[in-house]
Amino acid sequence: MQPRGIILDIDGTLVDSNDAHARAWAEALAEHHVNVSFDQIRWLIGMGGDKLLPKVSGIAPDSPKGQAILQRRMQIFSTRYLPSLHALPGANELLHHMHRMELRMAVASSAKRAELDDLLKICGADDLIEHQTSSDDADRSKPDPDIVQAALQKLRLDHAVVVMLGDTPYDIESAGRAGVPLIALRCGGWKDADLAGAIAIYNDPADLLAHYDASPLRRGKS
Asked: What beta strand segments (E) does 2-103 contain?
């Protein structure tokens, strides 16, 4: 069955932002006297901040220190890194092509809503996406399925006719637990072995667009 809807991750999928997020985390933690390396953080980008923080530091996200770190991370990311971010190759073109193919599009991102609007503008998705869900719309962040389930509800489509596009194992797990197959992109930095649960893997949005007619988006392959 050819898909009627697509759920989109943004960071690392449409916008080249994964490294920037990891740097913002490392700097915010260091300012609070918690030394965690960039590499330790980098491969946790894609899961929600409420899960990442205790994993790297043991600090509860709802504690006063945890709240201060989370807030500072957002400030660092938005002021130091966001202004220089750019869309990944072919992101805007792919979005417009999917729009022409009449795919209903929704965003399911681990980003906070305050960040998400700016990220959508960077890849040109702000004028095309009907629905967006962020970590603010779910009780549990990725890799739990809540954000994907919220996007499904907004699309008003059965999971059997929806595909997700993402770049991390956390996207794959989140989508799978919501019953949605996922197409993975390598541009987030992960290797194929890490993305083994995807139904197809492409280099970046431009590569998916170049092979669109043979992809699961066009033919409903699995």
From this structure: 5-8
Residue 186 contacts residue 201 (beta carbons within 8 Å): yes
Residue 172, H or E segment: helix 169-177
* Omega of the bond leading into 143 within 30 degrees of 0 (cis): yes
For 18-84, CATH number?
1.10.150
What does pTM read for this prediction?
Answer: 0.94
Rg (CA), the chain: 17
Domain at 5-17+87-219: CATH architecture: 3-Layer(aba) Sandwich (3.40)
Nearest CA to 126 out of 15, 5, 3, 1 is that of 15
Alpha-carbon distance of 183 to 167, in angstroms, equals: 8
Summarised one tens digit per residue, pLDDT across range 80-112 is: 999 999 999 999 999 999 999 999 999 998 787
